Amino acid sequence: MNTKTASEQVIQDLIDCLLAEDFFGDLNLMNVNDWNVQQSPSSKQTLKPYFQDAQSSMSKIWQWHYDLPEQRSIVTLLQPSITQAWERVPHNPVLLCQYDQCVELTPSDFLRYALEGVKDRYRGNEKGLALFQEVLDISVHQTQLSQDHRIESRHLLEKDNAAFFLAMEQWASLRDRPYHPLAKAKHGLSDQEYRAYQAEFNQPVTLNWVAIRKDWLQTGDGIVQLDRQQPSQYLLPDKQAETLLRELTELGLQESHVAIPVHPWQFDHVLEKQLDKQFAAGHCQRLTFTCGNFFASSSLRSMTPCFDSNEHLKLPMAIYSLGASRYLPAVKMINGGYSEKLLQQSKTLDPVLEEKLFLCEEDKWWAFMPPEATLFDEAPRHLSAMIRTYPNSLLKNPDTRIMPMAALGTPLHDSKDHFFDEWLSYRNLSQTKESVLMLFKELASCFFEVNLRMFRIGMLGEAHGQNAVFVWNKGQAHGMLLRDHDSLRIYVPWLEANGMTDPNYCIKPGHANTLYHDRPEDLLFWLQTLAIQVNMRSIIDTLSLIYNIENKQLWQVMGAEIKQLIKYIKFSDEVRSMLIHELFECDNWPQKHLLSPMIDRAGGPGSMPFGKGTVVNPFKQLS
Known about the structure:
- By secondary structure, this protein is of the alpha+beta class.
- It folds into three domains: 3-142, 2-Layer Sandwich (TATA-Binding Protein), CATH 3.30.310; 185-388, no CATH class; 397-621, Transferase(Phosphotransferase), domain 1 (Orthogonal Bundle).
- The chain is built from 23 helices and 24 strands.
- Strand 20 (468-473) and strand 21 form a beta hairpin.
C-alpha cells in the first residue's frame, strides 16, 4: 500500500480546494530569494533541503501564521494556476515551522493545524470540524486501498460493449470526483466492505431482497402500464426470477407484495435502524433469496446486472459520501421523471440534439411509502430501487462504445495507459502532441455542442464526469449520454419560449433548490463549474500528464471550440454577447465551494452541501 502516493493526491486537492475557497484569507506570499533573506542562518540550513530546487520566478513561498503566540506557521510553495489564482506546487513539501524547526506534514496533520487556525470562525461547530478531520483521514486511507485496483486498462476496444462500459466505470471510480479531497471517503465502510463494493476492485456483489406491500409502494410512470411489475423481471435471468417468485408464493406474498433488491450493506446496517417497526409489523419482509454477480459502477450504488442487459440498477446506500447520505427518495425519482420528459422534448426542438443527445430511461422505480409518510420523510428513502435503461442503439451496436467522461480524467497511479491510446490506434494516428490535441478538440466540440444547445433552450444536465457519458462511434466523437435526470437545471422563460412548460418540480417547502434559476447567468454556473472546472479540467490535466502536453495548450483548444460553437449555434445576439462576456471577458468566474459548506452542515441531512464563491477566469489567465 503506497501511503506517499495517496497522501500526495489528497493534500494537493485539499490545499488547492481551501485556497480556491479563500479559506486562509489574504495570502502572505514572497519570492523564494526574498524569503530566504529574512530567515536566520539556522532556518536557512533547516529549510534548504525543501526549497533548494524552487527556481521558478513564478513560484512563491506561502507562509500562514496560524498560531502567532507560539510562532507556528504552515509553509509551502505555491504557483499561479489557470483555474485559480494560486495552487500548491505538486510534490512540494508542506511544512510546520516553529522557530528554527520544521517538520513535513501529512494531510491529516495539515488539516488539524489549519482547523486550529480558524477555530474562532467555527466556534460552536466543533462537530463540523471533527467530521471534516475524520472524513479526510478516511479519504487518505481509502485512496490507499484503491491503489490495489483491478482495472483493465489495455485492449479495451477488444471487449464487447458491456465489458468495455464496466471497465471504464471502474476506471472512473478510481478518483471519483476530481479535485475534491474527500471524494474517495465512503464513511461507513470497513476495509473489507470497501474492497468488496468499490467498482475498481471488480468484485461481484450479491444483492439481498425484501418483499414490500404493493399498496405501500410508490412507483414510476414507466411500470404503471406494463405487465412487468416486479424488479426481478428486469434484473434477473428467468431461472433466478422463478426462484424468487417461488419464495414469495411459499410465503403467500405473490399477490400482495413486490420484491425489491437491497444492497447488502444497506440490508445489514440500515434497514433495522430505519424501518424496524415496518418489518416487525410484516409490511416489509426480508427474503432468503439472494443473487450475485452484480457489479458496482463509478457511483457505487448503481449496479450492472448479472447477465447481458441494458437495464441497470440504482439503490439507496446510506454511507456518508461527499458530505451527504446516499439515499434514494421517491421525490428525486419523481423530479427525474419530469426532467426526462423535458429532455425528450428538447431532442424534438434541435436536429443536432436529436442526433447527438442520448438519454437513459429512468421512469421505472419502486419506493417504500407508508400511508402516513410524506415525500420528504427520511426513513422511506432508504428502501427503494430504480431501473436505469440504457439505449439499445448504444449497448448493442458493435461500432459504438460508451464511457463516463470521468474515466478520461483519471490517471492510473501505476501506469500511463489512457483510452486515447486506443483511439489513436483505431484512427491509425501516431502518439504525438498534434494527434492528441486533435482528438481532444473533437471531444470538446462534441461535449460543448450538446451542452450549449441544451442551454439555448433553457436547460443544463449534470455535466460532471460521472453523469456525462461520452458516446464513441467508429473512432469519432459521436454524442453524449445523460443519466441521473433528477439534477436537470432549468431557466423557465427560455423553456416557455421554446414551447415547453415549467415541470413544477417537487421541492421541500422552505428548502433551497438548485433546479430553478432566475437568470441565464445562474444556469450557466453549472457549465462553468461542473462541466469545465471539474469535468473538462480533469481531462486536460490527465492528458497533459500522460502525453506531456502543456495544459495551457489544451485549454486554448477548448476555448477556441467554445467560441466557435457560440458563433455557430443560433443564439440571439443578446445571449451570444452574454456568453462571450461571462466565459471570456469577465475577470472572475463562479466557483462551487465544497469544504466550508461541509463544515457548516456538520453531517446533517440533504444533498451534497455546497456554496458559491468566485475564482479567476481560466480563459483570461491564459493570457
